[in-house]
Amino acid sequence: MSETGYAASPRIRWTEWLPWLAGVAVFFLLPEYLLFGARILTYILFALSLDLIVGYAGIVTLGHSAFFGAGAYVAGILAAKVKLTDPIVLLVAATVAAGVLGVTTGAVILRTRGLTQLMLTLAIAALCLEVANKATPITGGADGLSGVTIAPIFGLFRFDLFGKTAYLLCLVTLLAGWWLVRRLIYSPFGATLTGIRENSDRMHAIGAPVYRRLLAVYTISAMIAGVAGALSTETNQFVGLNVLGFEPSGELLVMLILGGVGRLYGAFVGPVVFLIAQDALAKQFPQFWYLGIGLMLVLVVLFARGGLLGLADALAARVRRSV
Amino acid sequence: MDALLSSLVSIAFHGVAYGMVLYVISVGLSVTMGLMGFVNLAHGVFAMAGGYILTSSLGRFALPFPVAVGLAFLLVAIGSMALERGLYRHFYGAGELEQVLFTIGLIFMAVAIAQLVFGTLQQPVALPPWLKGQFPLLGRDFPAYRVFLIVVSGAMIAALWFGVERTLWGAMVRAAVDNRAMAQSIGINTRQLFALTFALGSGLAGLGGALGAEIIAVQPTYPFEHLIYFLTVVSVGGLGSLRGPFVAALFIGVSDTACKYWLPQFGAFFIYAATIAILLWRPTGLFGTRV
Amino acid sequence: MKVARILTVVVALFSVVLFTGHSVSAQTVKVGFISTYSGAGAPQGDQLDKGFKLFMKLNGDKLPPGVKVETIVRDDTGPNPETAKRIAQELIVRDKVQFITGVLWTPNAAAIAPLTAEAKMPFISANAAGVAIPYASPYFARVSFTLWQACYPLGQWSAKKFKRVYTAVSDFAPGHEAEEAFTKAFKEGGGEIVGAVRIPLANPDFVPYMQRVKDAKPDAVFSFIPAGKQATAIMKAYGDLGLDKAGIKFIGPGDLTTDDELQGMGDVALGVITAHHYSAAGDRPANKAFVAAYKKEYGEKLFPGFFVVGAYDAMELVFHVIRELKGKIDPDRAMEVIKQYKNPSSPRGPIAIDPETRDIVQNEYLREVRRVGGVLANVEIETLATALKDPWKQLHPKK
């Protein structure tokens, strides 16, 4: 088993810079894929936020899209209806809004467990979806929110058709998100979370404020998801109802588990592999890509429960033993 | 006054018909989750399979309606047993997360396979003439099929309750739900019991999907689209309970119908809000004893 | 953990290898076709796809010498404007297409349109009927229909037949447009709307809504529901509750009784009155040949609906432009050709593009569902309007 959490050294190793190098390389080498890249980066940030609560705090949720959607809609509504179009201001506004939603719903659902909790997260997301669906004058309802225009970043960098600005914005935001999450999980706070995940009764017993810690991490996770949602609005200059649907939540969970839960870089590997596979399959066999995704999923949980990174660890361990 | 009364009767009637279907589909899920603590999000797949079996045996093979319904139950029960032995049992000890992921994977595959085999069109239900048209009752006309639906589901639910409350098998199931370790230690083969109960629950889902094909359209995205309703029935009703999901299903059926009738502009808002409120008030559901 | 990180990098680099661009020879015209292949909208998307494939099979080689057409098919997964916009953007930026066509859903087309204005990309709607979309992009043209085209004349006709009508439409832009068009014409003709209900787009059961309609005792119920399983479901609810026996006529645009769904609806659909531009039962020679070709390709028991014709005619228009420009596509010249387009022998009758609005000009037929030769058919009983331009744009010219 590899060392994670509080036990690990918090120093950033050189290998951890490689994803960022790859991210920059993509910008220069693959100008035609920047929009797709921006989407992947957005999903990585979204998956990171989910990993924080599922992987580190052990809260299973099917409704994380509520926060992504809240961020996306707040950014979209401010830009389209209030004409507040500065992308940085929108990111901040979305963070605050998602955070408020996170702390209020978290206060409720964290008092429950198991199926009830799962169901509550699902019902809250469904409720948000229904509100967005019915508040047609504000949200555009089922037709989606159009008329979103985003001002250039710092008045200089326009959001272009090729997604250059969007890609860089996503990359920089993800870097900030990654740094924050990394700091969190290597801190005493992160160690408390892992403790709660492993045995919450014992954490109670040693006097840790379990509920408050969970609420804090839930809120932070919601805020990061809200940022991801706002990024998606700024990249697409459009918000549709499906940001709040069950499918994004489900797919995100799939991506995370595919990469490996409770390990920082699972949230990187999962979306990259899933979205590329989806892109390739949906193009080649638009009717049946579901079959491929489903099969991949079942195989991963049957044979590689730690996700792709867990599989890699196991392989590496075997190689080491045989050498 | 007369108009109000007549709308109340309509809502009660249609709501009960919808609720009965929801219950027959979901009751198996309640038992599965209660007995083995298995989060089976793919339960809707069995209902969809039942629906497809019914529509194709009526349409393609022109079998009589009762035979088609029976087949839907039997084939789904047998198929689910194979799935249980082949796949599900590997996940009994696994965490919630793995179970969720595995069953979502099953849904994805089922959706794709349904598309491959049956195409994307909604399957038409070729009802026999005796189930079509209107059925006069107390001076009002009711759709004959929905009357039939209520009667048949009611009879089946009564049989199920009798089975669980009065037979040895039922006693063993109740014992295992209450305390699996204890049940095992007094010699109940819980694995086998579970396999049988799982098959029965899935078969019922298939039956519900078949009977309800007129109300809940059979098409490939079925397991995704209605998942939240099945889960709501189970969690609001309470895990491992028979009565709870029944009350919850009727509640959802009637209130959903009432909302559509009186407050169409609010849509499903009320259902979700009520679900959240009930779960906060009673986290174990209306009749459940544990999470 | 170290290995994990190395793997991360390998995957990232691998993705670089996967993304290799492809080059295109000068005489290849790339056409992006967007439809719905997964999710709840897949049945309709499949119809669109069938029209597209049928055209390519029958006419895919009718090109100037040396010119080739490459089609790129993408799935927008249903009424998901965000996905649709992203796909269109990818088609433009990554695949470098010269036309975008297909597009089933109005919200999706409305999301794509501003993009085509920015990218100067000819965008031909094969179905999406949202009435105001042409105003969002000068590079947008439509060969399908608008709901005003069907519902406005239907309202005028209904005012002569019925006094009291209840409207029940899906709660999204096309539903609102159908309701508005019908209500306006019907009221102008002296009719009374006794009630109006908007039904959520994602809905499993129509019975409560139809019960509400029945209890109001109107002469007719006007409805727009997206064609496909929803239309079938509302038809069933109409029959189950005995609205037909209560003397309430069912009327609406042709989306209610598409030719492919009609057989699944059963006898309850008999007598339903719709207004639309296309019926597989139309007796024009071009249509008979079209239906025969469709049946030969996809099976004797299947009928092409208006989605199929929309996609077929959209590809016909794309090929027309390619022929006119001899394979050298310049967006502005392409739009000039599109604005002058006339086709006297589409399966639905003569069609043209209105140069002012780039919207379709076509005939509207009044149809009744009848049993013809053992199958249900939308029999055209009257031509409601000839060479009809979109009425909404006549009332709301672009400022």
Quick structural gist:
Chain A is an all-alpha fold and 323 residues long.
In words, what does this structure look like?
By secondary structure, chain A is mainly α. Chain A starts with 17 loop residues before the first helix and ends with a helix. With 291 residues, chain B is mostly helical. Chain B has a domain of 193 residues. In chain B, strands 1-2 form a two-stranded antiparallel sheet. The N and C termini of chain B lie far apart (44 Å). Chain C folds into 2 domains: 185 residues, Response regulator (Rossmann fold); 163 residues, Response regulator (Rossmann fold, 3-Layer(aba) Sandwich). In chain C, strands 6, 7, 8, 9, 10, 11, 12, 13 and 14 form a 9-stranded mixed β-sheet that branches. The termini of chain C are far apart. About 3% of the residues of chain C have low confidence. At the A-C interface, helix 1, helix 2, helix 12 and helix 14 of A face helix 1, strand 2, helix 3 and helix 4 of C.
Instruction: Report the CATH architecture of the largest domain in chain C.
Output: 3-Layer(aba) Sandwich
Helical content of chain A stands at: over 70%
Structural class of chain A: mainly alpha
Q: Separation of termini of chain C?
A: 63 Å
Helix content of chain C: 40-55%
The end-to-end span of chain A amounts to 18 Å
Most residues in contact, chain pair and counts: A-C, 59 and 48 residues
The fourth-level CATH homologous superfamily of the largest domain in chain C is: Response regulator
* Largest sheet, strands/sense/barrel of chain A: none
Order of helices and strands of chain A: HHHHHHHHHHHHHH
* Low-confidence spans of chain A: none
Radius of gyration of chain C (Å): 22 Å
**CATH level-3 fold name of the largest domain in chain C:** Rossmann fold
The count of strands of chain C amounts to 14
Major pleated sheet of chain C: 9 strands, mixed
Average of the residue pLDDT scores of chain C: 88
* Uncertain residue ranges of chain C: 13-25
Strand content of chain A: under 5%
- How many alpha or pi helices of chain C? 14
Shape of chain C: globular
Question: Which SSEs are present, and which pair or pack?
Answer:
The complex is a heterotrimer of chains A (323), B (291) and C (399).
Chain A: H1 18-29, H2 34-56, H3 65-80, H4 87-109, H5 114-134, H6 136-139, H7 164-185, H8 188-198, H9 200-205, H10 210-236, H11 246-259, H12 266-284, H13 289-303, H14 307-322
Chain B: H1 2-36, H2 43-59, H3 65-86, H4 96-118, E1 134-137, E2 140-143, H5 144-166, H6 168-178, H7 180-185, H8 190-211, H9 222-225, H10 227-237, H11 243-262, H12 269-281
Antiparallel strand pairs in B: 1-2
Helix pairs in contact in B: 1-5, 1-6, 1-8, 1-10, 1-11, 2-3, 2-4, 2-8, 3-8, 5-6, 6-8, 10-11
Chain C: H1 2-18, E1 28-35, H2 42-59, E2 68-75, H3 81-93, E3 99-102, H4 106-119, E4 123-125, H5 133-136, E5 140-142, H6 147-161, E6 164-170, H7 173-188, E7 192-199, H8 207-216, E8 220-224, H9 229-240, E9 249-253, H10 262-265, E10 273-276, H11 285-298, H12 306-324, H13 331-339, E11 342-346, E12 349-353, E13 360-372, E14 375-388, H14 391-395
Parallel strand pairs in C: 1-2, 1-3, 3-4, 4-5, 6-7, 6-8, 8-9, 9-10
Antiparallel strand pairs in C: 10-13, 11-12, 12-13, 13-14
Helix pairs in contact in C: 2-12, 3-4, 6-7
